[in-house]
């Protein structure tokens, strides 16, 4: 046995980059121990610490530290010898160096100062678990009141401390779901759910080989394409789709009946707010009468708020589980379970009626998913595919993005007005069909943008054009990291929304044997990019092009309102030739089809997750939003009164 307090003291002040993977594993171990001992708040503190990678802090602050170490003109002259000072006056080359340095310093002074941001690690000076939990609760309370923040964390496994990513991904483990900000915040603090069982182990194993299996199915020899080979290809692809559906259903079953925790707060209206008060009053009266804990009260509140989304079987199961006294007797109190079931049924009927009368009641604010790198490859959006959702790698990163972009966040959305954009399409020139399709779309929908087709970009192009645009769209292999290094990205400030339409474009991958996992989105977020849209795994090019065109056309205003909505075009002609023309007997313009475009980017992604654009599961479940939930004011104003 080890002395926890002594170990805490030894590790205090050390960063992950100094002691390696033990830091994360130690925090996960402490999270497990505290949860088993009934210290839920302490466990949440260690979970949040485990998800923060101190390497992020080193890379993010590196550019500023280098700039701070650069001497100014006065310091250079003061440190120079008498002979060197003479050279600075008489030597043309050295004189030019001083002139350039002075000019740079003047330009730097003239620049508008960035908004100061709090230190990235808001727990750096907080080593007491209870104090840390209080700090976490305080940070979450300062986030937009419209958000719900859910954190997913995989538990400690001593066998995989020094394993490769594949071994860690497929290894058995439990999952903690921490409700850091929920429907009863700030009245009630964060709480936590714990999921275990053999089913999770089987799911981890299946997910561990998912990408390789898909690549094996879709990779074909172009020189050996026969009718028999085509039939085999489609048979294997359909079988993979069935297996993926089954895998996602199994994941949902593990979290049943708590999938309602993956739903966000409802859009406000007088009727919704009144009904919410009624529902929470019933919950509070029931919990007070039956002496339920705050943990049970939060879960029941969340279930009651979304009761009409709960199937009756899940409603019964949830009633039974919530009525169990977890501290003493795991068996449910049948009387309490029956009363909870009736309460949820009544709430479901009332919400259903209200949604029929008020369309705003159906909509929900975005859910922010803080996802452990070891769980990031899984399809969490599919647990509630109708829900607007975005991912982030840690609460620390979410806090940093929020503090930086706070002035542009209204009613829980990062608001933008997309006017000036840039696209980089098929830079390697080896995706002829995809390049032709997207060129046809972009020249039709956004001819005023700056486009680069079949042209390799330089790092200067990326930093001076792509990173400074309101919106940057990439479509090609990978994620753009082959054209611009991660360090260059970190040393820039990216204020626009970024779309990365490439295979595995935002999939997290290992950069070393024991290193943290990183995806392109982590580097972009390090450069303060607010929102990145990308993929979790490979996808078929034709289907990805269709999703890309649909997503961009619904979220970005066209150059001319007389263009056809993308749903009106002849898809066969576009897919085969890249030609944009109307379907037969369909000639409505965007001006005539007012409800085609939407301001909420996450809402459009939710429709993609539901299979409304591409019905096959392997074509719809791979697209995710990372960072802040964005709203484009150029296509739709926020449907809420000004605060």
Could you describe the 3D structure shown?
The protein is of the alpha/beta class and 643 residues long. Helices cover 47% and strands 12% of the residues. It contains 26 helices and 18 strands. A 6-stranded mixed beta sheet has the order 11-10-12-13-16-17, with helices on both faces. It is globular and about 95 Å long. The model is unreliable at 15-19 (pLDDT under 50).
List the helices and strands and how they pair.
Layout: H1 4-11, H2 16-19, H3 22-36, H4 40-51, H5 54-69, H6 73-79, H7 82-90, H8 92-110, H9 129-142, E1 148-154, H10 165-170, E2 175-181, E3 191-195, H11 198-208, H12 210-218, H13 227-255, H14 270-289, H15 294-305, H16 312-322, E4 324-325, E5 329-332, H17 334-357, E6 367-371, E7 389-392, H18 395-405, E8 409-410, E9 413-416, E10 421-425, H19 432-445, E11 450-453, H20 459-464, E12 471-475, H21 486-490, E13 497-501, E14 509-510, E15 517-518, H22 520-526, E16 531-535, H23 541-555, H24 571-577, H25 601-609, H26 617-620, E17 623-627, E18 630-632
Parallel strand pairs: 1-6, 6-7, 9-18, 10-11, 10-12, 12-13, 13-16
Antiparallel strand pairs: 1-2, 2-3, 4-5, 8-9, 14-15, 16-17
